[in-house]
Amino acid sequence: MIYLDNSATSFPKPREVRERIQQAFQNFGANPGRGGHQMSMATSEEVFNCRKTIADFFGADGPENVVFQLNCTQALNLVIKGTLKNGDHVLVSDLEHNAVMRPLTTMAKYGITHTIVKTFVGDNDKTVDSFRSAMGANTKLIICTGASNVWGIRLPVGRISALAHQYGIEFCLDAAQTAGIVPINMQADGFDYICAAGHKGLYGPMGTGILIMRDVKKLDTIIEGGTGTNSSSMDQPDEQPERYESGTQNIPGIAGLHAGISFVKRRGVENIYVDELAKVQYVHRKLKKIPHVKLYTDLPIQPYFAPLISFNILNTESEQVGDYLAKNGIAVRCGLHCAPQAHKKMGTEKGTVRISPSVFTKQNELDIFVKKIQLSKKAFTFSFFVLILL
After folding, report:
1. 20 to 30 A Cα–Cα from 70, which one of 140, 196, 240, 389?
2. Is the pLDDT of residue 232 over 90?
3. Does 143 share its domain with 238?
4. Model confidence, pTM
5. Is residue 194 part of a domain?
6. Same domain, yes or no, for 256 and 308?
7. Strand 333-335 relative to strand 352-355, pairing
């Protein structure tokens, strides 16, 4: 299979990630923080070491600022539902994923409002001004994706964060599509919260997500339960990160995530970005020459794009294209990508075909993909005539 769906989850995982997960079942089989025996202590140490690696990787103050979650969506929910109160106002970009939009829609029931801010591709000044104009006296939080999961459009999140702080507003980065692909530094960029998926650009396993807080804070919890600390009290502990990690953790996942981040560090985030962007640029140039292909963005270049492309075949539903490619051994993502706001921005409410390579994607795989797209017009025309005859 030619796998071009790394924006959904990266595949294959690095060898050391797979090996570390297997080792976790042998060496970290006990519950961390729930026992004084050797295996429990070894498991706790592995969890702590992963926190340290994450804090260092993202420029956080320390491991206590790192909270493990099931996924990036859960981390975003914790920020949204843990910080906002009745009467608060939130700003989001017009590229946001449903992981942001659905929780905010739910929070409207509790008197929390939001404004969708227009962004301008390739004009960061206008984008920042657009956020400035949308601010109100009750704006408490700005949430921005680092890059659109549909178009790859990157936002000037560092500048938007700086703008937010000028007005005493907190900033949350949705790094689902940028963690491990573009450099992110919490202190240098001034982010209050970073929410990241462990299974995409960080090359960890599915079921791993991260919330990093700039300061140690007491957010309202969305899950309460056993933490292995202060068990005699019926109140949820105040200590971070235990306050936000009730229940048994995904230890094999955390161990695999630790190995994945180490893999990214050795490769170098900048090197990964350059490599993957070059692959996307190659495909973009090829697709642009195919008459029956519709592209929606210009050639992806630094620093305005992440390494992914969305397109359509003229007069063909995106799902049909996905089925055609799947039958030819090529995995892509079609439809609305859980981001209807981003599709509304470009007028593609019926969806698109998205490709996203990884460091493991080979040149000949890209050539095969392009060839299949070149031949797709004949395939769909033949199918159309078959349907008429039937």
Report:
1. 140
2. no
3. yes
4. 0.94
5. yes
6. no
7. antiparallel
